[in-house]
Amino acid sequence: MDDQPGDRNGRTATQVVSLTEVEQEQFRTLLCANFNRLELRDLAAGIGLRLTEPANPVDRDLARELLREAEAHGRLSDLVEECYDLRPGRRWSRFS
Questions:
Q1: At 94, is the pLDDT very low, low, confident or very high (cuts 50, 70, 90)?
Q2: Cβ distance 76 to 68 under 8 Å?
Q3: Model-level pTM?
Q4: Coil, strand, or helix at residue 12?
Q5: Are 26 and 94 a contacting pair, CB within 8 Å?
Q6: At how many degrees (to 10) do helices 76-86 and 59-72 cross?
Q7: Cα–Cα distance measured from residue 46 to residue 96, given in angstroms and rounded to the nearest whole number
Q8: Among 84, 63, 85, 55, residue whose Cα is nearest residue 19
Q9: What percent of the chain has pLDDT over 90?
């Protein structure tokens, strides 16, 4: 099966640019439910971002920083795609 241009793993490339506050909260919750701290850092590195260590080192704060950095650097679409790749079958499509 050949992918069409703009397709990734048989899915059309996502075009998400920004998230509402509610979507950010939902995405953070989904990130924390599916990835641990090390995996969140790997997710960031996978899309070319480097995260700083939050003052209160909990997964939720790291997920918040990941979303903030991805949005600030125009990498939200890449983050959604990376989540699809690493945890297929989850509900990432609501953010694409």
A1: confident
A2: no
A3: 0.77
A4: strand
A5: yes
A6: 130
A7: 18
A8: 63
A9: 50
